[in-house]
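re: that complex we talked abt at group meeting.

here r the seqs, copy pasted straight from the sheet so there may be weird spacing, ignore it
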Amino acid sequence: MHGIIATWRMALEGIEKADAMLKEGKNASDAIEAAIREVEDYPYYKSVGYGGLPNQDGVLQMDAGYMDGDSLSVGAVCAIEDFANPVSIARKLSQGTVNNILAGQGAAQFGTEYGFEQKKMLTDRAKRIYERKKAELAQNDQLRPYDGHDTVGMVCVDDESHVVAATSTSGLFMKRNGRIGDSPFVGSGFYADSQVGGATATGLGEDIMKGCISYEIVRRMKEGMPVQQACETAVNQLDETLKERRGQAGDISVVAMDCNGNWGCATNIEGFSFVAATQHSAPVVYLAHRLDDGHTVFEKADQQWLDAYMHNHSAAVE
Ligand code: GLY
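got the structure back, here u go
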């Protein structure tokens, strides 16, 4: 039984590609990498890869992670600049026994040595959005990080029950130089264990890390909890704990899939979108929200929502 699930509508085209690969019998590692690369390459997504928004110095720094649920191998890059596909570098790094997580210059050096494609990742469009934000900040003198769509995170299972998880993001818009979120950190941004399943998160990295939420979901599944319940209880508990101890909780949304292709999601925000496909169902975009009783419900996004999404994302930037 194969399947793949991903955070946010932006993953749709990548999921379609991965779904076709899985149907042809390709493995989960190749499928998830191809899916995330598709998102990284698309110029209109402002929080992943090419077209991503820069940090407060106007520099685009990206994080990515990859985990193989058979061997538990992990690779990640942090604050890497000007490489087309950080997820591919993360996957390559997962194949070593040491030096699995590299940051900044070291990550770039590795990417260069292994011949990964280098590319100017800051687009004119992203630069215009940055300049506009900088002008607004000069007026208001108040820095509020961009809190819209962020990490693309995916979990994929192939017909051999091989589970992998991966992420890619440019992180928070206007973050400090060198800031790293949850996305390249195993256990926080992603986790995979082929004997159980995998999970991945999106939202405010600083808060997601406080609960190591991706590991926490897989741990609950390992103890026998169904995937949807594991997602909901993990998000709700972290959300409550953060509110109790800190007075507030940042955005936290997760998706997960077990090794049999059953999937789940949970969120503490309104309008979290995600995409899922399995052997028995074509890729579908869903919209999720949390009810007062703590359950997360989701429904298929309708055509009007899908059209508005594409319109907003490709709208001209003055
Ligand atoms: N969740 C992505 C980040 O905080 O950078």
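couple things i noticed - The radius of gyration is 18 Å. Residues 150-151, 169, 171-172, 181-183, 202-205 surround glycine (CB under 6 Å).
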